[in-house]
Design brief:
The complex is a heterodimer of chains A (about 350) and B (about 290).
Chain A (H helix, E strand, L loop, with lengths): L4 H28 L5 H6 L5 H10 L6 H13 L13 H36 L4 H15 L2 H15 L23 H7 L3 H37 L3 H8 L4 H13 L1 H24 L5 H11 L2 H29 L1 H4 L5
Chain B lengths: L1 H13 L2 H9 L2 H18 L1 H4 L34 H37 L2 H14 L3 H11 L4 H28 L2 H8 L4 H37 L11 H8 L8 H28 L4
The chains are: A mainly alpha (about 350), B mainly alpha (about 290).
Chain lengths: ~350, ~290
């Protein structure tokens, strides 16, 4: 029985809600069984036991765990993720400031991945077992294998040596006199507010970290695209086209490419978790100041509310990405669009 | 009948040690991967005898020799304390391999047994495994490991615990899928009718069929575990100095780029060499066993 694609996506959505609930319970419990006392951490060693106790009850830490969790969910659904102990501001405010930076970085990386990996995969599949194929496969294997921090530092090193004026840290030059825009995505804000120089400068800053972040995905997607292209070449309808004398170019671009982009898209969705993970490293190296840097700092400072929020937002990133992938795959694959059961 | 005949002739020949060796030796990525890994293991095991300055693994300081570029005495140069980077890198490989053994030594058996059980018996164990892996999938592993290892105490042991906690679910998921597809085969039913108990069926009938998938997955995973551990220690959640670890060596050297590039690139290259070895071997095994990824 095949479901209507709309129903299938709704089912997936239901699964994702359950996953979010399980994830939130897991991180919540984990964050509450910390050996160190968060109230003590927040106040510092000079605080008296009474002060610590007052803060503990203010934070609800003296309540049973289940009550704390329900309380947290109740507030979270109303847009209150608690106060950050370190920044002394609501966590949502911190997130609103840092998430756009990471979102911009991740989106540009994903564009890089597909822009580089799909053509490369098609190319080396076309020249299968020839020199181009061997070099391409070695490069993509290296992409999968290289630690992202090593690749990022190497890029910085090369830029520092050979592109002396190219920015290697931060999101913008300091002298730009930029006061922020509506979306927080600099590429778009610059254009919206009539400051193309800001967009251009942001783009320059973006290229290196986005490339570093996309490297693992480029390697993975190139490999998958290559094997999908090779496998689909053996399909009956492709052989039929070939025997009718349809030019190779038409076969590749009108028939094979669409069919072969399903596997890489699906993998992309799953890769998203490690993409977010790698963003922690890349943001640190490029002093990006995004959500991942915020998360790293929160973990180091044992800032409970911030850590919980960061894990949940990371999970949300993954889930939204996979929903988008599901929709895209449904659009691309006509077999999934057919309503009747087969 | 036809099935039986095929089993008799080709399959047995294909799985004979000689055939396996032949297919292995014809597979260049498996051979290169194995050679790389052999060299890594030899260097790691015999590190004290194969390195020029084994004492530099500890808290040695020699300021006259600091930040020296690679030459014939210091193949990888020296670091900010004048220690030989080649010696430290080789000892760092030990930590990486230890991490692999620790993490996979626990998560592979645990994941395999749970996956077998879930695949063969189904029911609540099936729901538990698929539910857990769905949650784990949505969780960036690095974020999870950071959270776990820091909530405890940031060191190698806790990093290992954190990675292990995450890793077994992947093996469970994989073995679950394989064993579920095998559980309905006729020969399993035959074994059951012949009076074989669940233990015999799980470990003598189903498990051997999982070996190809398991060996490919474990080999590729070794590379991921090394990368993962190096990333954790790069971020400062690894072993404590002065013990050399590839990730923290790269992090230390990062302060001195671009001038003293070897302090980053040499330990980094060793890391890449090792993970490349595991990946080549894994790719080769996959071709040999003809396993889908």
């Amino acid at each position: 029985m095949q479901q209507h694609p709309f129903v299938a996506i709704l089912t997936r959505l239901g699964t994702f809600v359950l996953v979010m609930i399980a994830l939130s319970i897991m991180i919540f419990v984990l964050a509450r069984v910390v050996p160190g006392d968060p109230a003590r951490m927040a106040l510092g060693p000079a605080a008296t036991p009474e002060q610590v106790n007052v803060l503990r009850s203010q934070m609800g830490l003296d309540q049973p765990l289940a009550m704390q969790y329900l309380d947290y969910v109740d507030k979270a659904l109303r847009g209150d993720l608690g106060m950050s102990l370190v920044s002394q501001r609501p966590v949502t405010t911190d997130l609103a400031q840092t998430v756009p930076a990471t979102l911009e970085l991740v989106l540009v990386s994903v564009i890089f991945m597909f822009a580089v990996a799909i053509p490369l995969g098609v190319l080396i599949a076309h020249y299968r077992d020839r020199a181009v194929d061997h070099i391409g496969r070695l490069l993509s294997l290296t992409g999968v294998t290289i630690p992202s921090f090593l690749f990022a530092i190497t890029l910085q090193l090369l830029a520092a040596r050979y592109l002396t004026n190219w920015p290697i840290i931060g999101r913008l030059d300091h002298g730009l006199n930029w006061s922020g825009g509506p979306t927080g995505l600099l590429l778009i804000d610059g254009l919206l507010t009539g400051r193309p120089d800001v967009s251009l400068n942001a783009l320059q800053h973006l290229i290196l970290p986005a490339f570093a972040l996309s490297m693992a995905g480029i390697g993975q997607i190139t490999r998958i695209t290559r094997s999908a292209m090779i496998e689909n070449q053996r399909k009956d309808h492709v052989l039929t086209l070939k025997s009718f004398g349809v030019p190779e170019r038409v076969i590749i671009f009108s028939y094979l490419l669409k069919l072969s982009s399903i596997a890489p898209l699906t993998i992309m969705g799953l890769e998203f978790a490690s993409l977010i993970g790698n963003a922690f490293v890349i943001e640190m190296i490029f002093a990006w100041g995004g959500f991942a840097s915020y998360g790293l700092n929160a973990v180091l400072q044992k800032d409970l509310n911030a850590v919980t929020a960061v894990v949940l937002v990371a999970g949300l990133f993954f889930i939204v990405a996979n929903l988008i992938v599901d929709v895209l795959v449904t659009i691309i694959d006509p077999r999934l669009r057919r309503k009747e059961a087969r | 009948m036809a099935d039986l005949k095929m089993l008799d002739a080709s399959d047995r020949e294909l799985s004979s040690p000689y055939m396996m060796w032949y297919r292995f030796s014809r597979n260049s990525s498996a051979v290169i991967g194995t050679l790389i890994l052999l060299s890594v293991v030899i260097f790691a095991v015999f590190a004290p005898y194969l390195t020029p300055f084994p004492k530099h693994v500890g808290a040695v300081v020699d300021f006259r020799a600091r930040h020296m570029a690679p030459d014939w005495i210091h193949w990888f140069g020296t670091d900010k304390a004048g220690r030989d980077i080649f010696s430290r890198t080789v000892f760092g490989l030990r930590i990486s391999l230890l991490l692999v053994i620790g993490v996979l030594g626990i998560s592979v058996p645990v994941g395999t047994v749970l996956g077998l059980i879930a695949g063969y018996f189904g029911g609540w164990s099936e729901r538990l495994i698929s539910g857990l892996t769905n949650v784990m999938l949505a969780m960036p592993p690095l974020v999870m490991a950071l959270a776990v290892s820091n909530l405890l105490e940031p060191n190698l042991m806790n990093a290992m615990i954190a990675i292990t906690l995450l890793w077994w679910t992947w093996h469970a998921r994989l073995i679950y899928a394989v064993s579920k597809s095998i559980a309905s085969e006729d020969y399993i039913e035959a074994a059951r009718l012949a009076g074989a108990g669940p233990i015999h069926i799980l470990f003598r009938e189903i498990l051997p069929n999982c070996i190809p998938v398991l060996s490919v997955k474990t080999t590729l995973d070794a590379a991921f575990v090394i990368l993962f551990g190096a990333t954790l220690s790069f971020l400062g959640f690894g072993v404590k100095p002065p013990i050399p670890d590839l990730g923290s060596m790269v992090a230390d050297g990062r302060q001195f780029i671009p001038d003293y590039w070897w302090e980053v690139l040499c330990p980094g290259a060793a890391l890449l060499y090792t993970t490349l070895g595991f990946n080549l071997l894994g790719d080769g095994l996959r071709d040999m066993f003809d396993v889908e990824s």
